[in-house]
Specification:
- By secondary structure, the protein is of the alpha/beta class.
- The protein has 2 domains: 149 residues, D-Maltodextrin-Binding Protein, domain 2 (3-Layer(aba) Sandwich); 98 residues, Periplasmic binding protein-like II (D-Maltodextrin-Binding Protein, domain 2), CATH 3.40.190.10.
- 29% of the residues lie in helices and 25% in strands.
- Strand 1 and strand 2 form a beta hairpin.
- Helix 1 packs across helix 8.
- The C terminus is likely disordered.
Length: 278
């Protein structure tokens, strides 16, 4: 990652230029690029008041997780479970995504367990031998939230890995899988841009709330730049205009601190009662 200083003639102050990737990969669906671009523009503007010149545009290309975690990442978003267990030592916590899921506490989300609308499935217990569609085998909202409720490994072995929540919903609606756990924000997005798919789904149950996806930057930036990036994210997303939230139901970002993600320590959760979600 390159950091260089230059002078902005309008403000007569030196800006530190951060050359790297800026991404919002979890919910950057093609239909929503205008919304994610507008959200990034707010962070970029706030970053300039912090003396930072961040990438001008988001990188909308599909990226593997290794790219999200590279030292070149200036800004990205990651599911809290893999971040806490695998990536927090090199990906700095900036803030927590704050979704508008109607009645959720700030910085929390949950999953909707969905089945085909016309199916006969009535309970999670009835799904133990069913075919699971899942976005990624290390996803909190698509897989780990089910672990205390059923034997997940056989479901993964016989399941369908789709690569994304939207594709899992489409697979269940099309009868290619019996059920899926869908993060509630993805479900809300689909209600607005894929209503024909939602019409073929039925929510069987919802999982308890957990910390929402984390907003991150590379620790290679150093503490000072990291602190300025955090202030820029919180300021830029302190309010989100209605023209964005009417489709992209995001309230902004909140600082819950990285410690709240310890709830995703699977080694400790395995020792707890299976009545509580991980």
């Amino acid at each position: 990652m390159m950091m260089t200083a230059h002078t902005n003639t309008n403000t007569i102050r030196k800006l530190t230029k951060l050359s790297g990737l800026a991404m919002m990969p979890l919910y950057d669906w093609p239909e929503l690029h205008d919304h994610t671009d507008a959200l990034w523009a707010r962070i970029r503007e706030a970053a300039r008041t912090e003396g930072l010149d961040v990438p001008e545009a988001l990188d909308h290309r599909p990226q593997r997780l290794s790219a999200w975690m590279a030292e070149e990442v200036v800004f990205s978003q990651l599911c809290g479970s893999p971040w806490f267990r695998k990536h927090r030592h090199h990906a700095r916590y900036l803030a927590t995504s704050d979704f508008d899921l109607m009645d959720n506490a700030p910085g929390t989300y949950f999953s909707q367990v969905v089945v085909k609308a016309a199916s006969d499935w009535t309970s999670l217990a009835s799904l133990n031998a069913a075919k699971l569609a899942f976005n990624d085998d290390d996803s909190q909202s698509g897989v780990h939230c089910l672990r205390p409720l059923m034997a997940v490994e056989p479901l993964l072995a016989g399941g369908l890995e789709t690569g994304g929540h939207r594709f899992s919903m489409q697979a269940v609606a099309a009868g290619e899988a019996d059920f899926a756990a869908i993060d509630a924000f993805s479900f809300r997005l689909a209600e607005r841009i894929m209503p024909e798919v939602i019409a073929d789904l039925r929510v069987l149950t919802s999982t308890p709330a957990r910390p929402a996806p984390v907003l991150i930057t590379s620790k290679a930036l150093g503490d000072d730049v990291g602190a300025r990036m955090q202030r820029a994210v919180l300021a830029g997303w302190s309010t989100v205009p209605a023209e964005i939230t009417s489709t992209y139901a995001m309230r902004g970002a909140v600082d819950l601190g990285g410690a709240v993600y310890s709830v995703f320590d699977l080694s400790k959760s395995a020792e707890k009662s299976t009545n509580a979600l991980v």
